[in-house]
């Protein structure tokens, strides 16, 4: 057994006791530590709190890396295009299904006529927006808050995937009819999001992960597309980024834990990844 595998075994043994939204990555030839922070993409301002240790990790890093680089104009154009479709929703459904979707959309304050030229991704986005129990003006995004701080500090900004990659993941996870099934569970999503926000505030990333992949909301195909495959792609890109410069990676909290979570994947590559209580 090599030193590396002993180290990984020791880390994995303690993994169930580890809970933090901030992790330090060292070893495996890195000259400076990098950091990973789990995020809660959207929450009400009353629940929002930026931990000082996360800001400290950003201060110590040369670059700030999100799932998508919101500062790349091409990516922002692609993001806007992601919500429109050349193919009308009503043309993809039977008259009965279209009528049913129209009724479901009434719960989201809209209707099929207004949404007909939208993509299924635009429908999917309605779920999270409605699940947040506060007006749009009071919604905060963890990534955007960190990004604004990073820009003030003149940090390099990067992304782990393209909008096109994210679109492929969502398409692989949910076809139109599966999105409609998700829309019908609107109330349950409100409960789910509140549970995730509460766990996130306690830095209980194990619970965030378990709630997110609950089979009521996500089957094995969807988990593979939304979590596993993306985590593996990111874990392949992160070493080169960390070697080049010290980075703070900000990814959804559900991507950290689990057998195919970012933490285990980086440890399997020989990095020491440890939870940080304070910096």
UniProtKB/TrEMBL annotation:
Single Gene Ontology BP annotation: negative regulation of Wnt signaling pathway
One Pfam family it belongs to: TraB_PrgY_gumN
Primary location group: membrane
One function term, GO molecular function aspect: metalloendopeptidase activity
Cofactor(s), by name: Co(2+); Mn(2+)
Domain of life per record: Bacteria
Bilayer topology term: Single-pass type I membrane protein
One cellular-component annotation, GO: membrane
Coiled-coil regions listed: none
CDD domains given in the database record: Tiki (cd14789)
Subcellular localization(s) per the UniProt record: Membrane
Keywords from the named record: Glycoprotein, Hydrolase, Membrane, Metal-binding, Metalloprotease, Protease, Signal, Transmembrane, Transmembrane helix
Protein name according to UniProt: Polysaccharide biosynthesis protein GumN
Organism: Chryseobacterium taiwanense
